């Protein structure tokens, strides 16, 4: 009995799909809470906080909680009431508590 000539192709496709990593979603844009909540923050600080927030989200997505918390600490030093950073910190603490 001769195996089906497409059997190898089907098995290879199945294995490739099973081993492929799912597509990564890009992080959501940083909310514009800074401008409305704290008008005394300079535009340079706004840009820095947004950059640090994206780095924290990237570290969180990469499962590097220590680095994410460092970035969140830097954000807190610049803008202590930045709500997206507080929400991310809460997610990290709840993830650490569930282990």
Structure description:
- The protein has 99 residues and is mostly helical.
- The protein has a domain at 30-97.
- Helix content is 67%, strand content 0%.
- The protein has five helices and no strands.
- Helix 3 (43-61) packs antiparallel against helix 4, helix 3 runs parallel beside helix 5 (83-97) and helix 4 packs antiparallel against helix 5 (83-97).
Structural class: mainly alpha
> Helical segment tally?
5
Shape label: elongated
Whole-number average pLDDT?
80
Sheet with the most strands?
Answer: none
Count of β-strands: 0
Distance between the termini: 53 Å
Order of helices and strands: HHHHH
Strand content: under 5%
Our Rg estimate from Cα atoms comes to 21 Å
Helix residue percentage: 55-70%
Enumerate the spans where pLDDT stays under 50 for 5 or more consecutive residues: none
Features:
99 residues; single chain; mainly alpha; elongated
What order do the helices and strands come in, and which of them pair?
Blueprint (H helix, E strand, L loop, with lengths): L6 H13 L13 H5 L5 H19 L3 H14 L4 H15 L2
Helix pairs in contact: 3-4, 3-5, 4-5
What's this entry about, in short?
With 99 residues, the chain is mainly α. The protein is 67% helix and 0% strand.
């Amino acid at each position: 009995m001769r195996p089906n000539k497409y059997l190898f192709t089907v098995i290879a496709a199945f294995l490739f799909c099973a081993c492929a990593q799912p597509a990564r979603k890009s992080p959501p844009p940083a909310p514009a809470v800074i401008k409305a909540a704290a008008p005394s923050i300079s535009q340079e600080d706004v840009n820095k906080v947004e950059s640090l927030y994206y780095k924290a989200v990237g570290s969180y997505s990469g499962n590097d909680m220590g680095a994410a918390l460092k970035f969140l600490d830097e954000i807190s030093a610049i803008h202590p009431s930045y709500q997206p950073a507080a929400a991310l910190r809460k997610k990290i603490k709840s993830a650490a508590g569930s282990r």
